[in-house]
């Protein structure tokens, strides 16, 4: 195969890990490849909270533009960063088999503070979803903004006088930097498509679309579609406290979705089950249930805050 497939990636260690997974899958099929690192706006501004800089697409925009401008042939994204509506002329080409989906608390010394109701812990995260869920469980705690790639955030935690910070398990474990001082947050529902990696191509690039189709992981593609459909129906983005998780067991899809107010005081939840061949509407139906139960008011309030 003479054509060299140019794989676009952000420059962080985690993004490069993701790009190498796609690269290896293509090389295994006999394709020639090249990695093309591209800096994103989200990597440049590490100070401003994400909800203040219009986060939707901030980690994917630069790669998508490079794809549209024919500088690269495939863009590799952390799927949870991808807006529910891809830019015109771009198409989801493959979803890789999902990794860990849970969030972790990385703590400084111990977790005794979690059992001390009068203690005001300092917890760091840039995610409004994690902030809202944390405040729902620990309303007296203080939340601090934490931006940057995985290694930068771990160093920031070490440098600051915080009790802990929240990370995605997949991000820490994939590049082998999960500290021993970490615990899985079983009660925290993840972001839609958390732990999944997606490859995006131009919709008229049949060569790359066919190449990627060979490693599309159908169960992960279905689960993430349901989760993102839940997000899409709620008309949310990365700056909305929306959580969703779908998994398949014995050909049955189990789905759970949540919507929180920004401060965590209001909370809506819906769950669904269906056979895998009848599950595509689970996310949409659950979202409509939440909107009908009062979630529409919370979504409207969040929009007013952001505007």
TrEMBL record:
Pathway: Porphyrin-containing compound metabolism; protoporphyrin-IX biosynthesis; coproporphyrinogen-III from 5-aminolevulinate: step 2/4. Coiled coil: none annotated. Tetrapolymerization of the monopyrrole PBG into the hydroxymethylbilane pre-uroporphyrinogen in several discrete steps. Its cofactor is dipyrromethane. It catalyses: 4 porphobilinogen + H2O = hydroxymethylbilane + 4 NH4(+). One of its GO terms (molecular function) is hydroxymethylbilane synthase activity. Keywords: Porphyrin biosynthesis, Transferase. InterPro entries: HemC, Porphobilin_deaminase_cofac_BS, Porphobilin_deaminase_N, Porphobilinogen_deaminase_C, Porphobilinogen_deaminase_C_sf. This is Hydroxymethylbilane synthase. Residues 5-207 form the Porphobilinogen deaminase N-terminal domain. Its EC number is 2.5.1.61. It comes from the Bacteria. Belongs to the HMBS family. Residues 224-291 form the Porphobilinogen deaminase C-terminal domain. Monomer. PROSITE patterns: PORPHOBILINOGEN_DEAM. It comes from Chitinophaga silvatica. GO terms for biological process: heme biosynthetic process. GO terms for cellular component: cytoplasm.
